[in-house]
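Case study 2.
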Amino acid sequence: MLKTPVLKESPQRLTLVFMVFALVFLVLAGRLVQLGLRHHDDLRLKASARTNQAIARPEIHDRFGRVLAMDVPTSSLYADPKILLGVDETVEKLAVVLPSIDPEKLRNKLFTKRRFVWIKRFLTPDQRRAVYDLGLPGLYFLREPKRFYPLGAQSAHLVGTVDRDNKGLSGIERHIDQLMRDERDGPGSNSDQKRPLVLSVDMRVQNGVVHELQKAILRYQAKAGVGIVLDIKTGEVLALSSLPSFDPLKPGEALQPDRINRAMRGVYELGSVLKTFTIAMGLDEGAVVEGQRLDVATPVKLGKFVIKDHHKTRDGTMSVREIFTHSSNVGAARIARKVGVDGHRAFLSRLQLLGRLRSEAGNAGLPLQPAKWHLADSLSVAYGYRLSVSPLQLASSAMALFNGGNLVRPTFLRRDKSEALKLGTPVLQSSTSRFMRTVMRENVISGTGRAANIKGYRIGGKTGTARKAAKGGYGKQLITSFIGIFPSESPRYLTYVMLDEPKKVKATRGQNSASSNAAPLTGAIILRVAPLLGVNPQLPSTNSAN
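Prediction:
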């Protein structure tokens, strides 16, 4: 029986089999390495995409949960130039479905060694579908949040804006960035799960202010306007409008000179509304007493500087009340002179009218004041000139004049009364505040603020009319404003309005002072928003003449 020579041939066959297996192993290993490197490239590309994508932000709500700002999921298109089969072909096809892109610029961007190149951010669903249907290799989609503002320009100045990467540029949006930085390393800091930021703003009140302000700008042919409503006890900002406003989806509009935030960023000489502080100062500092009468017939002279009134009185004097209700420049100047320059500046500093006002919605414009105060400066500030402040800063400082003397800084976030008391600073005697509430009401009943007197509501207020600075002095254009409080005997809310360059129109019988435009605007705003704030009109039987 013959035997097969297996043992003789086995070493060669085993060597061959081993070599085949080794070759297969090397091929597989090489492929695995190739796949691993490619996977590493994919991971690097994805990491780069995540680094470049917009950040997620919490929603912004008004005090009752109405959405003022939110993230909307969108798709953005980017390319990995290394994977593209042909740059020219890719650009040519993309230009057909995305006609807004610049083919030449895109072509130059794609000729790069970088692995990540943005093509177009925030595609519409139709654009995404059209790009997807092209089937071009090397193109990828990335889900990104895009900021959306359901109410548009209604609250743009206070809510603010973001850039293309969803980073805050202004207003509350910028404040949110600071909050996210503070919480970034804390537990539960995933921005996708952040709770909404709730503001103090009441959009019902905000809409009412905007609507009445728009009508007033048209009626009085004004260049611009401001409307503010504050809770006098807590300092909460319930409404803040500066018109013209802007589209928050177009942040560049906010930089246009006619669309600046006049309520916060602009600073102005505001005229006789500053007499409110002058009267309170004189009483609180003991320079005058309530029943005292001062000479207003004799002009106040200081070199070439002369202050005079056009008011006629029987004996050439006015009481402190009359100085306020008749808005006497001479009377205000005499009170300031009695207080003295240092005392005047210290009083306004105590009420935080001279430093920069800071808030969650951004810093107000820095007040403009004389570098070194002289007597002439003090006398001018007493009746509304030589000190320029923002409307929000003036309104927030004025709250202390009427709420019992407690200075509370304004806030755009929710704040209750107990917290406000802890944060507040006593700056006035309660008797001074009580007197100021009384004369504010008297001024609306029989003084310069009569046009703000609305039947059923006990409104107090003070007018302010100031000539705007011009080359070489002051021109004919005016800034008119009005501080309002309601209910006057125990104020819950303070309003402030300002009109920039109102004209003499038929509706005002050729007048353009604050008593003819800012005062009736205040009445219209209070009539509209008071019921929303729980302040109902009094019945005729309980509403006395005063």
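The radius of gyration is 34 Å.
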